[in-house]
Design a protein that fits this description.
Elements lengths: L3 H8 L1 H20 L34 H36 L2 H15 L3 H12 L3 H28 L2 H8 L4 H38 L10 H8 L7 H29 L1 H11 L6
Length: 289
């Protein structure tokens, strides 16, 4: 049986678009594990700069590599980084939010100061600093984006946890012997899930941008790994001569980031009952006496 929130997500145009694009990207990454039209790293000088045609549907680059195959292989990197960064951000965000909302006052204030300090550093700057010490890799991007947006998630989720913690049903549960850990899992996190989901979708969108941007600058994926950012860096030198080749990776990155953000907005509308009630009030005509 289809969950109700999934049906509500599909009913919104933004959520439907985001879900379709994200599923297509995920399936493309899965297919690329086993098959691509051509070997993404195979060069053929005789086929360099071919326009979109059969069998190279998106054309070829300056070394004769098939651009469609490169984009499909790069989807694997994008999915890996976005999921990895999302998992790290989830763990960091929930841990900091719980410590900042459910513990003793001195620990809450310490966590709040720590969050304020960490949030002052841009995610890309953190990743570049780590890369300069340990070298560029996808793991650097995952940890930098995960920690950076985990702090953002904690900052937004902490006051929501504090608000829900003062609710009557939570106080009643505590009165009958429910432990703080049980209350966190049963009552607090489900009630702040809509806010958390939006922040998580943004962190995954930023992970896609960060991976592409850092790879473009040489701090992300290595040259032997397929990446949309590396492909964009290789092709942008020829933008004045072959502008169409640069369009494909740029458009792919843009659509993926847009879809993740729209999916997060759609999930928030589908899972947050207060938004549905407000929408119902707005669309319900007033009765004139």
């Amino acid at each position: 049986m289809t969950p109700r929130w999934l049906g509500r997500l599909w009913d919104t145009s933004t959520g439907r678009f985001g879900a379709i694009v994200v599923v297509v990207i995920a399936l493309t990454a899965l297919v690329a594990l086993f098959w691509t039209p051509f070997d993404p790293q195979a060069s053929d000088i005789g086929d360099r700069w071919l326009p979109p045609s059969w069998p190279h549907l998106l054309g070829t680059d300056d070394t004769g590599r098939d651009i469609l195959s490169l984009l499909m292989a790069g989807a694997r990197t994008t999915v890996f980084v976005s999921i990895g960064a999302g998992l790290v951000a989830t763990v960091v965000g929930i841990a900091l939010a719980a410590l900042g909302a459910l513990t003793a006052r001195w620990l809450r204030e310490t966590v709040a100061v720590l969050v304020d300090i960490l949030i002052a550093f841009p995610v890309l700057l953190i990743a570049m600093m780590i890369s300069s010490v340990w070298g560029g890799s996808l793991w650097v991007v995952i940890w930098a984006v995960g920690i950076g947006f985990g702090v953002n998630i904690a900052r937004v989720t902490r006051p929501e946890l504090r608000r829900v913690q003062q609710s009557d049903f939570v106080l009643a549960a505590r009165a009958v012997g429910v432990t703080p850990a049980q209350s966190l899992m049963r009552h607090l996190l489900p009630n702040v899930a809509p806010v958390f989901i939006v922040q998580l979708s943004w962190s995954m969108a930023v992970a896609v941008l960060a991976e592409a941007g850092l790879s473009y600058l040489g701090f992300g994926a290595s040259v032997v790994e397929p990446s949309w950012g590396l492909l964009l860096a290789d092709l942008q030198r020829y933008i004045g001569v072959h502008p169409l080749s640069v369009l494909w990776p740029g458009l792919t990155i843009t659509i993926t980031v847009l879809a993740l953000n729209l999916l997060g907005d759609g999930l928030r509308e589908a899972t947050d009952p207060t938004l549905r009630h407000r929408a119902a009030e707005i669309h319900t005509p007033a009765v004139v006496a």
